[in-house]
Amino acid sequence: MSDNSVKIDIGLSEKSRSEIAAGLSGLLADSYTLYLMTHNFHWNVKGPMFNSLHQMFMAQYTEQWTALDLIAERIRALGYPAPGTYAQFVQLATIKEVEGVPKAMEMVRHLVNAQEATARTARKLLPLVGEADDQPTADLLTQRLDVHEKTAWMLRSLLEE
Predict the structure, then answer these.
(1) What is the CATH number of domain 14-159?
(2) Can you give the residue ranges of the Ferritin/DPS domain (predicted)?
(3) Domain boundaries, the chain
(4) HSE-CB for 133 with a 13 A CA cutoff
(5) Torsion over CA: 106, 109, 115, 121 (sign)
(6) What are the pLDDT digits (tens) for 73-124?
(7) Distance CA 82, CA 13 (A)
């Protein structure tokens, strides 16, 4: 049930809006978990690649921060509340928090996995969004997939000999 007492008539059924908002809530949770992981690693990275990774992680978490707002606002435009608590994010996210402070290349591995998990979450929504003919959400998902796949590739490249 929508949290808005004014009827929403944007050409998407209530069922479609509800299902898409639920999927986007999962994407928001994965995106926030990825953001937090990346920012944590930015603060705590050390070793010979400190400067490169510190700067790379900053660029990544800054981009991710902007994306959080876009995803949450799309959920709101569909007529639903966006999740916004740690408890909700933990429940909805497919990405698990990393314990402790891993070594630099382990941080990179964790980020590759988290970028790919976030891409999978976004991609899983595409059939539902296509069936509903929801172009704004499809556009958002396509943009997020492009960023997550490219970032995963760049991080993965650091792990190759």
Answers:
(1) 1.20.1260.10
(2) 23-160
(3) 14-159
(4) 4
(5) negative
(6) 999 999 999 999 999 999 999 999 999 999 999 999 999 999 999 999 999 9
(7) 19
